[in-house]
Specification:
The complex is a heterodimer of chains A (about 280) and B (about 300). With about 280 residues, chain A is an all-alpha fold. Chain A has 15 helices and no strands. Chain A folds into two domains: about 55 residues, no CATH class; about 210 residues, MetI-like fold (Orthogonal Bundle), CATH 1.10.3720. The two termini of chain A are about 35 Å apart. Chain B has one domain: MetI-like fold (Orthogonal Bundle), CATH 1.10.3720. Chain B contains twelve helices and no strands. Chain B starts with a helix and ends with a helix. The model of chain B has no long low-confidence stretch (mean pLDDT about 90). Classes of the chains: A mainly alpha (about 280), B mainly alpha (about 300).
Amino acid sequence: MKKKRMSPLAMVCTGLTVIMALAWLFPVYWIVATAFKSETDTIALPPSFVPFPPDFGAFIYVIQNSPIFRWYLNTVLVSAVITFFSISCALMCAYALSLLDFRGKGLINLALMVGFMLPFGAVAIPLFMLMNKLHFVNTYAGIILPQIATPLSVIVFKRFFDQVPIDFRNAAVIDGAGDFRILFNIYIPLNWSIIWAMAIVTFIGAWNNFFWPFIVTNSTPMLTIPVGMTQVQSAYGVAFAKTSAIAVMASIPTAAAYLIFQKRVTQGVMAAAGIK
Amino acid sequence: MTKAQRNDRRTKRRKRWSIAWVFVAPFLFFYGVFLIYPAIEVCYLSLTNSDIAGQGGFVGLQNFVELIGDQDFWASVWHTLYFIFLTVVPNTAVGFFLALLVVRLKRLRLPILSAFFLPFVLPVSVVTTASLWILDTNFGIFNYLVGSSIAWFQDPLWAMPGVALVTIWWTVGFNMLLFIAGLQNISPDVYEAASIDGANAFQQFTSITCPLIWPVTSLVLVLQLIAQFKIFDQVYLLTQGGPYNSTMVVLLYMYRQAFQLNRGGYASAVAIVLVVIMLLISALQFRLLKGGRAK
């Protein structure tokens, strides 16, 4: 068979795709470029498309004049704790739903579907009142607790556990292994890749969550980055370089996580949507 | 079966029972306390005149009666539906289109795919910051390059389309990913057989790709509808519901009632009506999509 050469039409198509992709990335580029300009340069006409030499003034200003490192710390802590507990709880629950027979199983499955449909915003008010009564407003516990139970992870893990041949478990039971050992020594190692994928997706989701931290925190030192940065921006007024600089700093962790673990994120997103 | 055997079996079953509950307990605890309980509580609250601290008395259906006559509320429902109209189908269509472009690439595939998906992993506040800057009336690069002078988020006519545009830019990568997975699942043999039979590219697209991708399309449409009903973050950060309430959506209206006017009970009634409308429209969509599948 002769090697296929690209037809002119295919080449035009590819060319257009590349141009579209660059256009899609332009806003991201533009905010990075703006962050490296001086405030006067940002509104210069005609605009300079490449900030050279780069001006670090906006970053220095933001670092010196906002509690951004505290917010970083808050967000890292909150996202890491949410991810750990969310994945652990989901793994155990999925194991029971997939492999154990017990009364009430149907009810749990139903509750999972309900939670999947229910918009979080609809329960925000009673949830806030509950947090208020527990004195969890403006605390890490207040941000973390409602984000631990994620029905989606349970559904995904259950689907993957269902696909492991039941003989694996039966053999282990005959050898006298308990369910905890079976989960940790068989089911978790066999499904490492999807567990990692869900963990990364959960982490990115927790990092980016705006609505709940926005509701449950209002004291400056307790904010997460996505909420905190908006507070600083309204204080700055019209200062495009500074608002861009803080936006760049806020997105580095999730953008980096995506670019490093690209395949895992893709896998996690598809699994969450029920494909593959 | 001897008595001993029966007893043995019974204890075994009881043991399995309890171990199962140990496994589901942690999840169920968090799920029950922080989702199921508030979901039940919001129904009760909607029948009270509670403030946001939860203090108040039972008032029966009074909140709902007030809600029926509340024009601002119905305007917010209308704005939410308008936002859904501007995003659900366009976001699905653009996602499909991008997937078609990306799926035929080979070496360039991964970088191009990441370019379209990258915005999706950014925090919403970063997305809105970038949008407010790029679409700024006077200094924004968009108006400069296009030569227009649209005041995107200050003009009642353009505010909601602006929010929709930003939302599509931000989230379309997710839809694209699902479509790419769907397109890859279509066996190349089908296309080969069709081209042997003399079908051209366009015919292959309309009679192979489109029908075989339909399950993914309907999935994306369902997920989109559920997601766009929850619109709050982008609107709050881009327009705060303005100008002249033209982007006041239901969740933002609920937030205002609860946290700014201190009307927890009334806001709960808003939440209930939102869920009911959501369920009704989802059911309607489900039936429509089922019809589409049968074709």
